[in-house]
């Protein structure tokens, strides 16, 4: 080949040595003697037998009990023992169903799921998902440490392969969810190489949720809004905080706002809560106008409403100064919720610079000073980027509905939210109202779905609770 005049044009088989590698070294293949393999298998078997009582104490003691009973007492006593144990379990289930469920049913389910789903499919799913690592011609897989079941999900605790990071798993959550036939997969990092994969067994949030019943008593710190992915009621705090709801168009921001208003109705009715509504689109809140103490839809009246809220807030703060540090909602000192639909209309999109500046100033003042004196801002926004809404950090609580990009998740819910499994960018358009939120006291985002308050529900709410006492009784207040 070197003597050829047109060596540069010579076709080279990909597997043949190229001129620069005239000599190739191959790793020699040495056959392992059978005795080594058999010794290894025997060692593994013995180790499993010795460790079994520690790993599966209940199963091992049950089998040992059965064998000992048959051996020493015979089959009749075994039948009696089985009947008595069955009666005992039935009594336990009847008398203490919750503890029976968590200590017996869910544990048995976890063992079954470990054997039937995770152990059986672990290797093929992880290899195909691209999570198997190769080193010196050997394959390494993340190792399942334990499987536990809650009422709604499997939690698979996994030890990662050294040299990989939780981000590698996070980038494969869709493949893992489909691989294990789960509606989604969430990754929680517990420590170095220690992560939990949470696979819901079924999606409780797949079906739309009807408007929740109006509560008899209003707890401003826990308004019923919808359902959490674990089947519990999603409750949202308004007192002592401000809430920013972010989602693309059609994500269901309206259902978050209307669920909150619905949960406030008895307090709106007795005058301890007043809702001031700003509705630039004129489509979202206008339908429930009689429920609001104040309402504005044009830019000028909206900014005037915000500035009036600031003024009232400051008057109240001046009254409280040196006398009281917290607010209790009463008819004289009501809790004021300023609802701002599409806040970017005032802060970013309006052509008049003065309107934008006044709106930003008012929102910033309300959100930074209003919490302790009973003023709350509940705002909705489509685009969370800083250019559009640079005040988002003044909202302590946020709801991330369907978003466009993964980077937006962290913008809304905080830096590590996406890493902790808040996949708001993966919410599909066919489940409006589904969102991720951070519940108080927990850094882990929770998937929720807001109940859907229909136009008919709003009409019924207006018929029963409107017009707001704010409109009826307070001079100077009214529709802006
Ligand atoms: N919680 C929900 N459950 C079921 N369907 C919902 C829910 N919320 C909204 N929808 C459906 O999605 C549609 C759009 O919802 P909505 O108007 O609240 O979205 P949005 O985020 O406010 O959009 P936009 O920013 O364009 O106003 C509604 O008309 C309704 O059909």
Structure notes:
By secondary structure, the protein is an alpha/beta fold. The chain has helices spanning 34-55, 57-72, 75-95, 97-128, 166-170, 173-179, 253-269, 299-320, 344-349, 353-369, 406-413, 455-465, 469-473; strands at 133-135, 138-140, 143-149, 153-159, 186-191, 194-200, 223-228, 233-236, 243-246, 273-278, 294-296, 335-340, 375-381, 397-400, 434-438, 445-450. The chain has two domains: 97-202, 2-Layer Sandwich (Threonyl-tRNA Synthetase, Chain A, domain 2); 223-473, Rossmann fold, CATH 3.40.50.300. It contains 13 helices and 16 strands. The strands form three sheets. Strands 8-7-16-15-14-9-13-12-10-11 form a ten-stranded mixed beta sheet. A four-stranded antiparallel beta sheet has the order 3-4-6-5. Strands 1-2 form a two-stranded antiparallel sheet. Mean pLDDT is 86; it is low at 1-14 and 472-480. Bound molecules: adenosine-5'-triphosphate (ATP). Residues 208, 247, 249-255, 382, 432-433, 450, 452 line the site of adenosine-5'-triphosphate.
Tell me the layout of helices and strands.
Elements: H1 34-55, H2 57-72, H3 75-95, H4 97-128, E1 133-135, E2 138-140, E3 143-149, E4 153-159, H5 166-170, H6 173-179, E5 186-191, E6 194-200, E7 223-228, E8 233-236, E9 243-246, H7 253-269, E10 273-278, E11 294-296, H8 299-320, E12 335-340, H9 344-349, H10 353-369, E13 375-381, E14 397-400, H11 406-413, E15 434-438, E16 445-450, H12 455-465, H13 469-473
Parallel strand pairs: 9-13, 9-14, 10-11, 10-12, 12-13
Antiparallel strand pairs: 1-2, 3-4, 4-6, 5-6, 7-8, 7-16, 14-15, 15-16
Binding site for ATP: 247-254
GO molecular function: ATP binding; DNA binding
Domain FtsK: 215-410
């Amino acid at each position: 080949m070197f003597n050829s005049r047109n060596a540069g044009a010579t076709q080279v088989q990909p597997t043949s040595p190229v001129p620069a590698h005239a000599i190739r070294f191959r790793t020699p293949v040495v056959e392992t003697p059978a005795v080594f393999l058999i010794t290894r298998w025997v060692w593994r078997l013995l180790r499993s037998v010795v460790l079994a009582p520690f790993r599966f104490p209940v199963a091992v003691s049950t089998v040992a009990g059965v064998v000992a009973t048959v051996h020493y007492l015979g089959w009749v006593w075994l039948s009696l023992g089985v009947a008595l144990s069955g009666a005992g379990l039935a009594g336990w289930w009847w008398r203490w169903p919750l503890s029976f469920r968590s200590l017996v049913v869910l544990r048995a389910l976890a063992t079954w799921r470990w054997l039937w789903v995770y152990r059986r499919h672990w290797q093929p799913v992880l290899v195909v998902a691209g999570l198997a690592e190769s080193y010196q011609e050997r394959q390494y897989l993340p190792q399942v440490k334990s499987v536990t079941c809650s009422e709604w999900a499997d939690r698979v605790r996994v030890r990662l392969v050294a040299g990989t990071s939780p981000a590698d798993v996070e980038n494969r959550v869709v493949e893992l969810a489909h691989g294990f036939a789960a509606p989604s997969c969430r990754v929680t990092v517990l420590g170095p190489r220690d992560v939990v994969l949470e696979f819901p067994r079924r999606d409780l949030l797949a079906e739309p949720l009807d408007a929740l019943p109006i509560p008899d008593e209003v707890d401003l710190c826990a308004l019923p809004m919808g359902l959490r992915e674990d089947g519990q009621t999603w409750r949202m705090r308004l007192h002592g905080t401000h809430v920013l709801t972010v989602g693309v168009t059609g994500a269901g921001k309206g259902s978050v706002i209307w669920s909150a208003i619905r949960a406030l109705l008895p307090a709106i009715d007795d005058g301890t809560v007043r809702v001031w509504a700003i509705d630039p689109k004129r489509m979202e809140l206008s339908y429930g106008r009689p429920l609001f103490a104040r309402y504005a839809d044009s830019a000028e009246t909206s900014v005037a409403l915000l500035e009036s809220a600031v003024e009232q807030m400051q008057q109240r703060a001046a009254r409280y100064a040196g006398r009281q540090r917290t607010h209790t909602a009463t008819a004289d000192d009501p809790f004021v919720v300023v609802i701002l639909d599409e806040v970017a209309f005032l802060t970013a999109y309006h052509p008049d610079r003065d309107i934008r500046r006044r709106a930003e100033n008012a929102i910033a003042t309300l959100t930074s000073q209003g919490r302790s004196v009973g003023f709350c801002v509940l705002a909705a926004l489509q685009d969370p980027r800083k250019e559009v809404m640079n005040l988002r950090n003044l909202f302590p609580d946020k709801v991330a509905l369907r978003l466009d990009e993964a980077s937006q998740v962290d913008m809304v819910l905080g830096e590590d939210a996406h890493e902790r499994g808040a996949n708001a960018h993966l919410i599909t358009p066919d489940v409006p109202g589904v969102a991720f939120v951070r519940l108080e006291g927990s850094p882990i985002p929770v998937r929720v779905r807001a109940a859907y308050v229909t136009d008919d529900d709003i009409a019924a709410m207006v018929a029963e609770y409107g017009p707001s006492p704010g409109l009826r009784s307070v001079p100077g207040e009214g529709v802006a």
